[in-house]
């Protein structure tokens, strides 16, 4: 029997994510304020992770801060979340991010 899937999108209220279950893992996509860079990652607390990015404690994203959350997805296991993160960091995944968030602005 297949287990029920959690809702994929979470509500974003004022830059903070409202967690529906604390035993979940989240994939998040950040966009810097200049709208030139995205960052994709996995965390169990997206708000805490965003604070680390904006405080400059994540080396890969430090030069491009500050960031805002533009997308989150929830997963029951860390393995599922890592697979989705790996997809978004691939060439096809980066194209998908562009299509989801930037195609309306270009046209």
Outline:
This protein is α+β, with helices and mostly antiparallel strands. The protein is 33% helix and 25% strand.
Indicate the topology.
Layout: E1 12-13, E2 16-17, E3 25-32, E4 38-43, H1 46-54, E5 67-75, H2 78-88, H3 91-101, H4 103-106
Antiparallel strand pairs: 1-2, 3-4, 3-5
Biggest sheet strand line-up: 4-3-5
- Return the CATH topology: GIY-YIG endonuclease
Instruction: Output the radius of gyration.
Output: 14 Å
Shape estimate: globular
CA(first)-CA(last) distance: 44 Å
How does the helix and strand content classify structurally? alpha+beta
Total domain modules: 1
Low-confidence spans: pLDDT under 50, at least 5 residues? 6-14
- Percent helix: 25-40%
The CATH architecture:
3-Layer(aba) Sandwich
Task: Outline the biggest β-sheet.
Answer: 3 strands, antiparallel
**Assigned CATH class:** Alpha Beta
Count the DSSP helices: 4
SSE series: EEEEHEHHH
- Mean pLDDT metric: 85
In percent terms, what proportion of residues is strand?
25-35%
Number of distinct beta strands: 5
Walkthrough of the structure:
By secondary structure, the protein is of the alpha+beta class. It has one domain (12-106): GIY-YIG endonuclease (3-Layer(aba) Sandwich). The chain is 33% helix and 25% strand. The chain has four helices and five strands, in the order ββββαβααα. It has helices at 46-54, 78-88, 91-101, 103-106, and strands spanning 12-13, 16-17, 25-32, 38-43, 67-75. The strands form two sheets. It has a three-stranded antiparallel sheet with strand order 4-3-5. A hairpin with a 2-residue loop joins strand 1 and strand 2 (16-17). The longest helix has 11 residues, at 78-88. The model is unreliable at 6-14 (pLDDT under 50).
